[in-house]
Amino acid sequence: MSSTATPASRSALFRQGSFVCFLLSRSLSRFSSQIAAVAIGWQVYDLTTSAFLLGMVGLVQFLPTALLVLVAGHAADRYQRKRVVQLCQLAEALTALFLALGAYAGWLTVTQIFIATAVLGTTGAFESPATAALLPLIAPQGSLQRATALSSGATQVATIAGPALGGLAYAISPGLAYAIMVLFWLLAALFTGAIRVTQAAVEKDSATPSDLFAGVRFIRENPAILGTISLDLFAVLFGGVTALLPIYARDVLETGPFGLGILRAAPAVGALLMTALLARHAIHRRVGLRMFQAVIIFGVATVVFALSHWIWLSLLALAALGAADTVSVVIRFSLVQLSTPDEMRGRVGAVNFLFINASNQLGQFESGVTAALFGAVPAAAFGGIATIAVALLWMKLFPSLRKVERLE
């Protein structure tokens, strides 16, 4: 790896007002999402003590994405992207307000939490592809990779602090955690509105099935992109231990809600350190092989976490897991963005988001079901072993991805 970003080039990005507003908007929205993950997960498990219902939270979030992915991608290419993002953030703030009022008044039920989770899943299905397609329109020419690294770093800071803040706020009062989400999503909507961007005009004719499926066709016709997205899908589907963190925090490691927040933040610490490294030293050689190596490390770290009964070792394993995952995220995002024409970025990004959500939220469902059947520790260990097996299998199934030498 060699240096790719000078301090001057990074500071030039921070002099771009729209880019700064984009960073603040995305970070605040990420903050709220992470607080929601801690508060909703802990409250569902606290009310039910059911690993199955804890896993159902992921499924409820994923279903709207699966049903609306093509429509959401087309909306990102058809309408002004910053307005799509802003409307989603306002809807998320209203949903968080409902949760806050219910928690403070004491009438919030598990069913209502699941309904609110489904709404957040729906808004996320539209917000994420529009956000991803917005960044290339903001970053100055030739600075997309640096902008992507800085954006990833900003969201990782939110991912680190968000769970800890959510856990601490929930320990004081569940309603406080939800109230913070309201504030952050409202601020995010304000910063999104301040973004200035020139987006090419699009024709407002009726969408055809061909238009809706353009992103699917594009990915299918590019084996390297299909390989990297599907690798992430199946690896995290089996290796997603974050769904089991409330069980580990309460029953295995015997920590409280704040301890859960620290555990959720640990992968982001590793991810942030790796992001800082990749922002200065891009991966220039044997990119495909590096991704497979990262996924294998991800699986090994998952097994270590699964078997650990010491908080320090669990935190180290989660940090290593987050660092390895960041390598695959950077490679996947760079491959997709640099290979996709602007008029299709929303639709391709929506399909990519579907795969990401499938890996994270269906992985949460799979982990919950497996934990309910066999226990949390065997479920997490099995997931790590399956992740390693998937990486080895994909090396055979997608030789074009393994042979990718450079991102550009």
Oligomeric state, counting identical vs distinct chains = single chain
Mean pLDDT: 80
- Tell me the Rg in angstroms: 20 Å
**Class inferred from helices and paired strands:** mainly alpha
Discrete helix count: 17
- Element-by-element helix/strand order: EHHHHHHHHHHHHEHHHHH
General shape: globular
Total beta strands = 2
Low-confidence region ranges: 1-8
Please estimate the helix content. over 70%
Q: Termini distance?
A: 14 Å
Please outline the major beta sheet.
2 strands, antiparallel
Spatial sequence of strands, sheet with the most strands: 1-2
Estimated share of beta-strand residues: under 5%
Topology:
Blueprint: E1 2-3, H1 7-14, H2 17-48, H3 51-78, H4 81-105, H5 110-138, H6 144-172, H7 174-193, H8 209-212, H9 214-220, H10 223-239, H11 245-252, H12 257-280, E2 281-282, H13 287-307, H14 311-339, H15 345-374, H16 376-397, H17 399-402
Antiparallel strand pairs: 1-2
Helix pairs in contact: 2-3, 2-5, 2-6, 2-7, 3-5, 3-15, 4-5, 4-7, 5-15, 6-7, 6-12, 9-15, 10-13, 10-14, 10-15, 10-16, 11-12, 12-14, 13-14, 13-16, 15-16
In short:
It is built from 17 helices and two strands. The protein has 408 residues and is an all-alpha fold.
Can you walk through the features of this model?
The chain is globular and about 50 Å long. By secondary structure, the protein is an all-alpha fold. It contains 17 helices and 2 strands. The protein has a two-stranded antiparallel ribbon. Helix content is 83%, strand content 1%.
What tags apply to this protein structure?
about 400 residues; mainly alpha; two-stranded antiparallel sheet; 17 helices; globular
